[in-house]
Amino acid sequence: MISSKISIGLVACYIGKLPWYFVYFVHSCSYNPDIDFFIITDDESYDSPVPSNLKIIRQDIKEIRAIASSKLQLEVALFNGYKLCDFKPAYGIIFSDYLEGYDFWGHTDIDIIFGQIRDFISDELLTMHDLISVRPDWLTGCFLLYKNVPHINRLFMQSKDYIRVFTSKEHFCFDETNFAHDAFSAGKMFYEVNTDVESMMHVVQKAAVNHQIKPFFDLFIIEGTPGRLHWRNGKLYYRNRFEILLYHLIYFKKQNPPSRAPQFTTAGFSIGPSKIRHHKTPLFCNEV
After folding, report:
1. Which of 51, 107, 173, 281 has the CA that lies 20 to 30 A from 81?
2. What three-state secondary structure class fits 206?
3. Comparing C-alpha atoms, which of 242, 248, 245, 278 is closest to residue 261?
4. Sign of the torsion formed by the C-alpha atoms of 109, 161, 42 and 105
5. How far apart are CA 13 and CA 64, in angstroms?
6. What's the CA gap between 240 and 229, in Å, rounded?
7. Separation of alpha carbons 90 and 80, rounded Å
8. Which of 87, 114, 121 is closest to 236 using CA atoms?
């Protein structure tokens, strides 16, 4: 960790065998040495080298459930990896033993390829805000930053439904919008969006309107399968014109996995609509 920067610790939980795209996640993390990553997984088989800023912590869902119940003082209903999404806003409390001392903590997914995070998440931005989302319209469960202070770590408790969410086996998409993405994308406010539970998007909007927090929303992410993405020397570009913070492989990962393990070079790789192509020399074309 670089002491001159505002420190950031990111947590990802993954239950099951780590997937083929995890190597891309790890590789991109290695080019962000001033950010620490904690990967909590029950996969005992993964033994590939990882960079010094990434720590793999072996815990199964039963152990995570016990920790969450103890930290939250609730008997939580956490029995599968998908349900972990609802608990992301509480990671600052659940995983406080790992995140102690960081100025900001965040939750991230592993179906992500990072560019240079600090090119977007500057000290100035962090100093001015309590929460950072990489979409302009709603909270991004795949990557979200919180100031590591008690009232922000407990922000999820402002939802009138958080106990219901944490003690039910049902998945509520609590970390984002309770499945009301389209309504928030259309510009509606929390008081106009009626959902089954009061999600974190409702909580954050309400707190911001009441001047309790200062959130930041902007478009630093690409999703879908647009192609024309290029990763070079730790930076990620779209169409060789726009630098981006991260590519979320939420749809791309459903394509056929590569037939062999990638060989990473500083020349980088290109991400097309359905495949990743590695290069021995720098690539500057506009198409994959």
Report:
1. 51
2. helix
3. 278
4. positive
5. 9
6. 8
7. 17
8. 114
CA max distance for the chain: 55
Edge-to-edge strand ranges of the sheet holding 104-108: 54-58, 36-41, 8-14, 104-108, 143-147, 131-133, 215-217
Residue type, 47: D
Tokens 């969006």 sit on residue:
193
Write 150-155 long-range contacts (CB < 8 A, 24+): 152/92, 152/213, 153/92, 153/93, 153/96, 154/93, 155/89, 155/131, 155/200, 155/203, 155/204, 155/207, 155/213
- For 207-225, the DSSP string reads HHHTTS--EEE---EE-S-
Contact residues for 130 (Cβ-Cβ < 8 A; gap 6+): 146, 147, 149, 152, 213, 214, 215
Is the separation of the CB atoms in 36 and 121 below 8 Å?
no
Asked if 23 and 261 count as a contact pair (C-beta separation under 8 A), the reply is yes
The CA distances from residue 129 to 97, 215, 239, 241, in Å, are: 24, 6, 30, 28
Q: State pLDDT tens for residues 136-195.
A: 999 999 999 999 999 999 999 999 999 999 999 999 999 999 999 999 999 999 999 999
Q: Is 175 helix (H, G, I), strand (E, B) or coil?
A: coil
Distances from the Cα of 5 to the Cα of 119, 121, 126, 145, 240, angstroms: 12, 11, 10, 15, 28
- Tabulate helix, strand, coil % of the chain (nearest 5): 30, 20, 50
| Number of residues written out for the chain | 288
pLDDT digits (tens, 9 = 90+) for 253-265: 998 788 888 888 8
